[in-house]
Amino acid sequence: MRDGDTASAKVLIADQGYDSDAIRNDVENYGGAPVIPSRSCRKQDIPIDRFAYALRNQIERCFNKLKNARRLAA
């Protein structure tokens, strides 16, 4: 978030492609909680909130429906 923004995200939900210590540290420095499943190459798994991660699927389905609706409206 930029410095002038009044709203700030509390949770970052991402897939395994964003599992890096740098991203996790940045999110925590801004006061958020990273919900990113660990990659298989991590030596120690980092636990995540499974309920919050399940919301990611619903968000992706919503974007898919919006894209399909735009295709029909054009």
Characterization of the model:
α1 links the parallel β1 and β2 (33-35). The protein has helices spanning 21-29, 50-73; strands spanning 11-13, 33-35. It has a two-stranded parallel sheet with strand order 1-2. It contains 2 helices and 2 strands; from the N terminus they run βαβα. Helix content is 45%, strand content 8%. The chain is globular and about 45 Å long.
List the helices and strands and how they pair.
Blueprint: E1 11-13, H1 21-29, E2 33-35, H2 50-73
Parallel strand pairs: 1-2
Q: What would you say about this model in short?
A:
This protein is mainly α and 74 residues long. It has helices spanning 21-29, 50-73, and strands spanning 11-13, 33-35. It is built from two helices and two strands.
Which structural traits does this protein have?
two-stranded parallel ribbon, mainly alpha, single chain, 74 residues
Q: Summarize model confidence as the mean pLDDT.
A: 85
How is the largest sheet built, in terms of strand order?
A: 1-2
Please tell me the total number of domains. 1
The stretches of 5 or more residues where confidence is low (pLDDT under 50) are none
Element-level helix/strand string: EHEH
